[in-house]
């Protein structure tokens, strides 16, 4: 577990929020437990194997949602860790700013 944390580039922030994500053949409605500019951890009983591609619809301040593509990088009995693809750098930057703001508000 410590090795995984050392690989993280972005600040991870507790963030309990609903999320919708889809695979090629399934839609899921679950909850995010934490978030960073690089990914999310989703609490779920529907464990997806690593390397599964997902499309996430993340709640964003103001009642809007953003759509990001990601890949499952880790899964276990508590849920799945999804790393965002970096194709949309503007959305990733906005998400990183939001997470940093959450961190400042909590601190």
Automatic annotation (TrEMBL):
Any single Pfam family the record assigns to this protein: PilZ
Gene3D superfamilies reported in the protein's UniProt record: predicted glycosyltransferase like domains (2.40.10.220)
GO molecular function terms noted in the UniProt entry: cyclic-di-GMP binding
InterPro entries: PilZ_domain
Domain PilZ per the UniProt entry, residue ranges: 6-100
Name of protein: PilZ domain-containing protein
Organism of origin: Desulfobotulus mexicanus
